[in-house]
Design brief:
mainly alpha, 2 domains, two-stranded antiparallel sheet
Length: about 150
């Protein structure tokens, strides 16, 4: 936590922002966001407003398995995929036709798929998709109160 708004520099603000999304659970992240708002609100009110207005959306990844957080925290998961397509399109001076462009993009993305990082804990993906039946608290699977006990 920072001491006063006058002491907050870019490095301090960056560290405070990193503290919001790099803590062990949502409650600590919300506390870090409040500290960021208190420490940086005077110097950077627009930045603080961006963070605090949609804090629930920003911290939504905490409602998923902890093993998946590393994937959900990424800020540009899709950009590297299209960098390959963009590079090839520039080298070839355009695909020629729309159909050729779509086919080229499809093949390049399909080829890039072999280098993608696998999802941690893939067995939890089905539970994430079935959110009506499974909920996660602090990154761990939580029992639902309305579900009957297993016999």
């Amino acid at each position: 936590m920072l001491n006063s708004p006058a002491q907050v520099g870019r490095a301090g603000a960056k560290a405070a922002l990193a503290e919001i999304w790099d803590v062990e659970d949502k409650e600590h992240a919300e506390a870090a966001a409040k500290a960021f708002a208190a420490d940086c609100g005077v110097k950077w009110p627009k930045a603080v407003a961006k963070i605090t207005e949609d804090l629930d959306v920003l911290l939504a990844f905490y409602d998923y398995p902890a093993e998946h957080w590393v994937h959900l925290r990424a800020t540009t998961p899709i950009e590297p995929t299209f960098a390959t397509v963009r590079l090839r399109q520039r080298v070839t001076k355009g695909p020629g036709s729309r159909a050729a462009g779509v086919a080229m993009a499809f093949k390049l993305i399909k080829s890039a798929q072999n280098r993608w990082r696998a999802v941690n804990a893939p067995h939890l993906v089905a539970l994430v998709r079935a959110r009506a039946r499974a909920q996660f608290k602090k990154g761990k699977l939580a029992e639902r109160a309305d579900q009957p006990a297993a016999e």
